[in-house]
Amino acid sequence: MAINSDALAVMTGDAPVKLYASPPSPFARKARIVAAELGVLDQVEIVNTEGVPFDPPGIGARAANPLRKIPFLQHVDGRLVHDSLVVCLSLIEEVAAPEAAARLLPPAGAARIDVLTREALSRGIGDAAISLLYEGRYRPEDKMWPDWVEAQWGKISGGLDAMEAVVPPDGRFDLGDCAWASALSHMDMRFEDRGWRDGRPGLSAWWEAVKQRPSVQAVL
Length: 220
Ligand SMILES: N[C@@H](CCC(=O)N[C@@H](CS)C(=O)NCC(=O)O)C(=O)O
Description:
With about 220 residues, this protein is α+β, with helices and mostly antiparallel strands.
């Protein structure tokens, strides 16, 4: 989507891309981890922007950001990229050097689909997690629906079980793994009381190891 760069009041400066992101967002964390793993942090200006459902300040004109969500990316030519997967693809394919890009995402075929499928699992967990949080934060108390809350947790739990079944091999840290790390960091931040590690020893051990990566440390 091409937009006039005046459309977002906060757009100033010379970085090739601006990443509109808020620190706790699992989707924004993924984009930041990806930028760090690609070695392009010096080309990405992070603009702190809150993502909340009710038209937060700084989220931009409706024409520029129709879904009113973060993260989104703006290129210096004004192009706007939204949804965290496409933000990551834009960083990989349009900002990073080819060798760095290839480490995060194979160019085609089943290997690429595998990475994108793992990313989608994490994004689904993030969507359910955000729905759950918003239920507690914004829904009037008399309209809360515990079964619905548990159904959202069921999606998260199912996603975590699927992760446990195929724990990433040592040494790999591609886009799918960046996404998993962002989802687990969000689990620790928002849902520690749910005990997501219980019954998932492989995933817990993997998370303890990848948590040491500088790209992940930077978003915790
Ligand atoms: N599928 C989107 C989800 C993004 C999302 O839900 N972001 C939240 C913050 S973590 C947000 O901006 N929420 C505001 C809203 O729902 O209106 C993505 O992957 O980027």
